[in-house]
Structure formats: C-alpha cells, structure tokens
Fold this protein.
Amino acid sequence: MKRLGILRSLKTTTVLLPLIAVSALVSSFLSPEDRADWIGGPFFLVPVLLFGVHLAACAVHRLRRAASWRHPSRLGADIIHLGLLVLIAAGLMSSVLRSETPLVLARGDSVLLEGGRRVTVEDLEFRTWADGTPRQWTARLDIDGDAAALEVNHPVRAGSYRLVLTGFLTRPRLTMDTPEGTMGLTPESPIVAGGERLELRRLESAGPGRWSAVVEVDGVERRFVEGRSSGGFTLQSVDLNSAVGILSVRDPARIPAGLALGLIGLGAGWSLVYRLRRPR
C-alpha cells in the first residue's frame, strides 16, 4: 500500500509538474515540425501520463473514502480532479488527432476542405501606417457563400476547421501589354509573346509607390518601369500581394478541452462558495 500511496503523494505532484513545465518550455524553442515530434515523444508524454495516473489515484482514493458525499464542501476538489483528467485526455487526443495543413492561395483561388467546405479568397487588403510600415493584412474569404474577414490573430471557422492567417507572400505578378494582348508574368510562370520569351528576374523601387521590373527577354535583361513601353512591351502594373498563407487547423479535442476547463471552473467556484459560507 505504501507504493500505491506514492501515487497520491504531494511529492509526486511537485516532481511531475516541473517536468511537464520544462518539457513544454523546451518545445517552445523548436520548429513546428520538431515540436510535434517532441510533444508526441516520451519526454513529454510520459510525465503527462504519470500525472494523469496520479490524479486518477487521488480521485479514486477520495471517492472510496466517500469524503465528498459526507462533506459537500470537499466536492469541489473532486470536480477539479475530474476536470484535470479530462484536460489531460484532451491533450493526448490533440497530440494524436490534430492536423495542420498549410495553404497558399492567390486572389480568386479556392480550396475544398474535408467535410465539403469550400473556401475562396475573394480579395486581399494591405494597410500601412503613415510612414509606410505594415499595419494590417486582411484576406476577404467566401466560405460556402458566407463572407469572412481573416486577419492576423483573428482566425475564422470553416466547419470543423480553424483558419489562421500566417502571412502574405510578396510573390510579384506583372501585368504586361504584349503584341498578343495583356498577359500576367510571375517568377514561376514565364510567358512567350511576339516570338520572345519573358522571365521575371527581380523587382526594384522606381520611387514612392512605383516599381521597375528586371525581365530577361530571350536571354537579355531589360528594365521595365510601370506605365512605360520598351521593345513592344508595356508594364501596366505590379501586384505584390498576390498570395496569402493560411494554416488550416482541425483539432477534435477542442470540445473535450472546453468541457475540462468548465469542470475546473465549476470545482473552483464550488470550493470558493463553501469557503465563503464557512463561519469565521
């Protein structure tokens, strides 16, 4: 029985909690891929599982003694223990079943998520402060006909998925007037017009709010400035906000985690009420 008593000991708590805290701190310094491996590895899971066994042993011991039923004022501690057990189970469920899918979508692109939800990027907005520094990025989304504004630190829901804005990609897209009509030019997609092959090499500033583009035309670099023609080609405009990075997150442990926090809050409130009612 002494060995079983160790599972309920406060010393066990003082050993396991620092181990979990240190393991969680180490994971915060890792990349997302390494963090997932760390949380799913023994250095994090073993202390968490042992802490769950510790809490279960404490709860079972209290219930066997029926202390809570004789003294309702002590029931709050049991509810808190139950909430912590559910929270640990939710954490383990999240580490196994949570999925994260990075998406890169341009204006007008759409993606079909599992479950049938279609997400379309309707528009991209970029606001700056007076000195030109970035102020706010916004992606206007259409989620199965419902409009949503996706911003930094303001995720939106799409069914069982949570969409998080991870950033805007400054993937330039040039709109060029060519002998064969208006065409789009990106670093990944060269164009052929008028018998010549055009490849975008780089962008350079041509003054406040204006850009020049260095384009390789049949192996020879030429510089194009917005609104000016060169060799039969005219650079109409430069679009720098042509794509948005979105992280699609699905975590089935969200509901159990909410239930756990509710139980912990209920237990804490129960204990507080009885403590305040205790005669002084």
